[in-house]
Amino acid sequence: MASDPGALDLLHLPVIGRFLRWRHARTVSQIPLLLIAIVMIVHGLFGPDLAPKNLATTLTWVHFRGALVLVLLCAGNFFCMACPFLLVRQAARKLWTPRLNWPRRLRNKWVSVALFALILFVYELFDLWSTPWWTAWLILGYFAAVLIIDGLFKHATFCKFICPIGQFNFIAATLSPLEVKVREPETCERCKTNDCIRGRRDALDDLVVIQRGCELALFQPYKAGNMDCTFCLECVNACPHDNIGILTRPPAEELTVDPRRSGVGLFSRRKDIAALAMVFTFGALLNAFGMVSPVYAFERWLSGILHVAHEAPVLGVIFTIFLIVEPAVLLGLAAWTSRAWGGLRKSLLALIVRYSYALIPIGFGMWLAHYGFHFFTGLYTVVPLTQNALASLGLPILGEPRWTLVGLPLRLVQPVELGFLLLGWAGSLTVAFRLAEEDSAERPMRVFLPWAAVCTLLLAAAVWLMLQPMDMRATFLE
Amino acid sequence: MAHPGMGPVFADARQVGPGLYSGVLDFTMPGDWALVVHAALPNGGQLEKQVNVKGVEAR
User: Fold this and answer.
1) Which SS3 state, helix, strand or coil, does residue B32 take?
2) Would you call B6 and A377 a contact, using CB atoms and an 8 Å cutoff?
3) Is A9 exposed, middle or buried (0-12, 13-18, 19+ CB in 10 A)?
4) Which of A4, A28, A210, A382 is most deeply packed, by most CB within 10 A?
5) Using CB atoms and an 8 Å cut-off, which of residues 6-35 of chain B contact chain A?
C-alpha cells in the first residue's frame, strides 16, 4: 500500500514529532507506565480488598482498558510503544543475552490465540475485576513471562508470538488512523543498507549494532498495515535516509486489500490470524455477556443440565459455544451462501478466512462500547482512590477521599456506546463489500449480503447486550 | 458495587434502639455489593466494617 501523498506525518509536527523522533522517546514513554504498574502491584497486594477502592483493579479494568481502545481508535498502537514490560526486559537484556531462536513451528499466532481466549476465560472464572490481589499477580505474571520468554529467545518473541494484549492491539490497530510506514518508496529502492530491519552497524565491526532495527521482522519497504507493529520506532531511528514516518491513512483500509506483508505474509493464508480476528470479535460479545443479568440465568440452566456445581465446566461450555460453535456456524453459513449465490470458486475455509477480517470493525466497536462504558462512567474514580491510598500511607496531601467523584452520567455514555457499535458495523459492511467487489465484479451484492447479515446479527446482539442491566457477580451459584 | 468504577451509594443510619441502627440504601444495579459501615464511637474512635451483599437482584 503506497503512502498517500496528502498524508499527514506525525513526525513532522512540532513538539510531538520532535519527541517521537528522539531515540529515547520510547523509554521516556515507558517510565510513567512502569511506575503506575508498580503502584498497582503494591496496592493490589497490600491495599484494600474491595476492588472499587483499590488502584490495581480500578486502573486495570476501568482506566487502562478504556484508554487503550480509545488511543487505538484515535491514533495507533501507542500502548505497545509505551509497554512497561518491555522496559524491564530491556534492562534485563543488558545483563543477559538470549541465545535461542523461537521454534519455527511456533512462529504463528496459535499460541497467542489460545492465551487470548484463556485470559478471557480466567477473567470470568476468577472474577479478576473483583480481586485486587489476583490482578496484581496477573501484572506480576506478565512481567515474569516477558522476562522468561525474551530472556531465552532472541528478538521480540514475546510481542510477536505470545503477548495476548499485543495481539489485541495488533488486530485493533488495523483500524487505527496512523501507521508507521515509508514516506517515499523510491528512496527504499535505492537503499542498500536494509538498516530498518538489520539495525545500524558499527562501521568497523558489522557485528556491533549501534541502532536496533525492527525486532518483529517487519521490513519497511514491504511492510503493509499495522499487523505486528509495536510502534517502537526503531526503524525510524535506524533508517539512514530519514524515510520512515508515522502517516495518516484511512482506518480499516488495510483489511480491504491482501498484499504480501513483510513479516506476516498474506492475510488470506493466515488461518491463525483469522482465528485471532474471530476470537477478537466473538470474544468482545462474550466478554460483555459476562457482565449482564441473562448470563447468570443461562449459567444456572446449564449447570442444571450438566449436573455440575462448579463454574469452570459451565464456563467451558459457554466459551465453546460462543468462541467456536457460533463463529463456525455463522461464518460457515455465510461462506456457503455467498459461494453458492455469488458463484465463487474458493473453498469454504478460504472464504471464512478471507471474510473473518471483515468482522474486526464490529468486534472493535463492541470492545469500544464495553470498555468505553467503564472508562467514561468510572473516569474520575482514580481521584478518590489516589486520595485514599495517600491518606492510608499517612500522606493526605490531596485531601480526604471524595467518593462521590465517579464519572460521566449514563445518559451521556449510552449514545456514545451506540455510536461505537454503529461505527463498527458500518466499517465491517464497508470491508465486506470491498472484498465482495474484488471476488465478484459482476455480482458483488450476492457475495456481500450473507456477510452483511452476519455483521447485522452481531450488531443486534451487541445492542441487546448494551441495553441489558449490568450485573456483576463473583459467582452464579450463590 | 463490587466492580471498580461504578458509583457508590451513600445513606445515613439512625439509632432505633440500644445498639441498633437503621437506614435505607438503594442499590442502583444488580450484582455483588459491599456495604461499608463507618461509625463514630463514643470514645472518639472510628470504626469501619465491610459486609458483603452478594447477588442483589433487579426489581
Assistant:
1) strand
2) yes
3) middle
4) A382
5) 6-8, 10, 29-32, 34
pLDDT tens profile A336-372: 999 999 999 999 999 999 999 999 999 999 999 999 9
Question: How far apart are the CA of B34 and the nearest CA of chain A, in angstroms?
Answer: 8
Q: How far apart are CA A406 and CA A387, in angstroms?
A: 14
Cβ pair A58, A385 in contact under 8 A = yes
Give dist(CA B55, CA B57) in Å, integer. Answer: 6
Residue A340 cell numbers, joined:
453458492
Asked if B8's CB is within 8 angstroms of A471's CB, the reply is no
Q: What is the pLDDT of residues A28-64, one digit of tens each?
A: 999 999 999 999 999 999 999 999 999 999 999 999 9
Is the pTM here over 0.80, yes or no? yes
Cell of B23: 437506614
Q: What is the pLDDT of residues A287-346, one digit of tens each?
A: 999 888 888 889 989 999 999 988 999 999 999 999 999 999 999 999 999 999 999 999
The minimal CB distance from B2 to the residues A404, A472, A478 is found for: A472
Q: Which three cell numbers stand for residue A334?
A: 455465510
Residue of chain A minimizing CA distance to B59: A469
Cα–Cα distance measured from residue A143 to residue A140, given in angstroms and rounded to the nearest whole number? 5
CB–CB contact B5 A473 (8 Å): no
Q: Is A266 in a helix, a strand, or coil?
A: coil
Closest CA to B10 of B26, B22, B21: B26
Q: How many residues does chain B have?
A: 59
Report pLDDT for A476.
53
Phi, then psi, of A341 in degrees rounded to 5? -75, -35
Which residues on neighbouring strands pair with residue B49, listed in sequence order?
Answer: B37
pLDDT of A1 over the 70 cut? no
Residue A261: closest CA among A346, A164, A181: A181
Chain A CB contacts of B31 below 8 Å: 470-473
Which residue type sits at A98?
A: P
